[in-house]
Amino acid sequence: MAEARAEEARAALERANAMEVGVAITRAQLLVVERDSRVADAQLVDARKKLALLNAGSRAEDIAEAKARRDGAAAFLGEGKADLDQCSVRAPAAGTVKILVTVGQFLSTYAPATLVQLTLDAK
Predict the structure, then answer these.
(1) Domain residue limits, the chain
(2) Rounded to 5 degrees, what are φ and ψ at 116?
């Protein structure tokens, strides 16, 4: 795409240069065509550089940075899963759980109290 634009801009510049300034083309129009040609050439150079980078593959430091970000995200996920496990109560068997305390109820570590009661399902 960039090559086609650059070729078109060069052809337009050649046509404009062939015209006599002040008769077939104004000086301003010639300057616009010259500018468009330079811009198209710069875009072509940029596109070729980007293609060369893509063909060369990823740089080692980019790969290392991506792996570090991946490992950091995995650690963050593991920490979140551990936090979730700390917030969950799992029954050791299938049954019905009855909560025996209420929100805000005072409990003491010196006088143990039953918090939940598990009634096993009959099979």
Answers:
(1) 1-57
(2) -135, 155
